[in-house]
Amino acid sequence: MIYLALLLSIALIGGLSAVGLKVAQTVQLRNAEADLLGIGVEFRNALQSYAEVTPNGLPPTPDSLNELLRDPRFPGMRRHLRRIYHDPLTGKAEWGIIRGPDRRIVGIHSLSSGACFKLENFPAGLESLSGTTRHSDWVFSLASIPVPVAR
Fold first, then answer.
1. Predicted local distance difference test score (pLDDT) of residue 149
2. Dihedrals φ, ψ of 39, to 5°?
3. pTM of the full structure
4. Minimal CA–CA distance to 83: which of 93, 97, 73?
5. CA distances from 78 to 49, 50, 71 (A)
């Protein structure tokens, strides 16, 4: 009898632990997705800032992400982005780069091919992310420049 009660207790504890781990994993994914949205908006704003201050005759998009950290088109220090953020889903400072026809950067996306937990109800300005199913489909780009489908 005591043996049976002990087995049932262990099974119950194991089941509750499994549920707890699944909940923790879901919370972690939601937090990482929220961080990705915030970082993506930072990159998009940096690209927009870069384009808005472009001197006449120069391309309105950077050749590399490092140009967002220190804009080489101006003497002195001009920043559009504080730092190259780490992707909260991969943990790396590597991003998928979307290049325009002139091979310059028009957007970024996560390199995580994991399934999205958030599928709809995106904040204003990110409505285009609705219906995407993978994190790598969350493209953060200049609104005035069309983003090519093939990456």
1. 44
2. -65, -40
3. 0.79
4. 93
5. 11, 10, 5
